[in-house]
Amino acid sequence: MAGIFFCVTALSLFIIATPVFIAMLVPTFLTMEFFGPAIPAAAIVSRMVAGINKFSLLAIPLFIFSADIIARGEIGVRLLKMVESMIGHITGGVAITTAVACALFGAISGIGAAAVVTIGPIVYPTLLRQGYSRGFAVGLILCSSTLAMLIPPSVAVIIYSLQTMSSVGAVFLSGLSAGVVFTALIAAYSYYYARKNNIGRQDRASTRERITSIKRSFWAVGLPVIIFGGIYSGAFTPTEAAGTACIYAIIVESLIYRKLPLRDILNVSADSAMVISTLMILITAGSVVTYYLTLNQVPQMISDMLGGHSRLVILLIINLIFLVAGMLIDPSSAIIVLSPLIFPAAMAAGIDPIHLGAVIVMNVAIGMITPPFGMNIFLGIVTFKVPYYEIVRHSMPFIAVAILGLLLVTYIPGLVTWLPHAVGY
Fold it and tell me: In this predicted model, what pLDDT tens digit does every residue of 102-157 receive, in sequence order?
């Protein structure tokens, strides 16, 4: 009875568009009040504080801040131009450039929506001039932007790792492998679409133009090199890498590229603070929900329910749960609430936590472009002034490509586990 009351109350609050953290906390408090167990208010507050009192959690606000700096600067543009000079001349080159540029941008931002507003407005007119339909162009940009959810320094990966006490570095590498698979599939579909529809190709860039683009993007490429190199050489932790990314982004954008005046950094930090505070509130609320459900042995119940099934069936169930959750709520909320519940059952089934991280994050990434409430759909409406139904219709082939990638990652674990295992995780 308590479970039904909790679910009905939470669903009702979601339907009436209540803020997510309220829709998480209110059902928890009401269920505790009416059905028990009675928990002292001090214990609840202590649990909320404990949910964000983690050193590794500092990486999230720092990466968000660095992503906002980059989104307003020149780094994304220079990365795009470099990739375009290399592959823009092949069949589907502009579309493939979009996917690769979004992947590279993900390697310096970690935020799924950042590429939509940074790379999207730059490449969108070029895609239209090249002969791609408006719907295809928007679908490609929205789908490619989700690569930042997988490729380090992914904020979603950090949240999963904190919720499940997994190694951030290991799950970073599994997410990187999943991101490469996803990027390759988007590129393959783009090539097929361009060939089928006789889309024209750009002129091949000269050797001098390529060298120039590489020189112009030198400082932009340096950021992911510093992040990856620093973490995996042991020079600094992911949290320290995030701090380094902030300092590097400020120096490059303000002093080298001079795209973002130093006086504007304060405005950027204010905008970042809004996003960061929202996410921190979600994490505190999620820690309370997880605490309550754990007291009521919900993770053990889920493990018992799934215990009679094979590993393949359990992975299928996990995919369905997170894919549907990603369609309805933001990715961070889905990971915060559901990961601690699913994790014990997955471990009991012998699923590698590194593999599980890639699967879960890929699901919520797909949810960002999946109707009815995929976050990137509405961001695309605002950014490109394209109607909802048109975005949804033209996003379907990309969703199918993404699901194909999800199935490959889910049922061929070696695709995402070989790299972390190769470096000793």
Answer: 888 877 777 767 778 778 888 888 899 888 988 899 999 999 988 888 988 888 89
Q: What is the pTM of this model?
A: 0.85
Residue with tokens 């889309």, as numbered in its chain: 199
Q: Which residues contact 344 (CB under 8 A, 6 or more apart)?
A: 299, 300, 302, 303
Which residue blocks in 36-133 are alpha helix, DSSP H?
Answer: 41-52, 59-71, 75-87, 93-109, 114-118, 120-130
pLDDT at 1: 67
Q: Is the pLDDT of residue 221 over 80?
A: yes
Terminal C-alpha separation, the chain = 43
Using one digit for the tens of pLDDT, what is the confidence trace for 34-62?
776 777 777 778 878 877 777 777 888 88
Peptide bond into 153 cis (omega under 30): yes
**What distances in angstroms separate CA 29 from CA 24, 26, 37, 96, 283, one per listed residue?**
9, 5, 10, 49, 16
Evaluate if residue 403 carries a pLDDT over 90: yes
Taking Cα atoms as reference points, which of 185, 121, 188 lies closest to residue 147? 185
* Residue environment code for 94-109, b if the CB has 16+ CB neighbours within 10 A, otherwise e: bbbbbbbbbbbbbbbb
Mean pLDDT of 410-417: 94
Query: How far is 237 from 246, CA to CA, in rounded Å?
Result: 14
Burial annotation 12-26 (CB, 10 A radius, 16+ → b, else e)? ebeeeeeebbebbbb
Query: Cα 57 to chain center, whole Å?
Result: 16
Q: How many helices (H) and strands (E) does the chain have?
A: 22, 0
Q: DSSP per residue over 115-138, as a string?
A: HHHHTHHHHHHHHHHHT--HHHHH
Q: State the sign of the Cα–Cα–Cα–Cα dihedral 61, 67, 70, 71.
A: negative
CA distance 238 to 215: 28
Region 156-178: mean pLDDT is 91
CA atoms within 13 Å, Cβ hemisphere of 1: 5
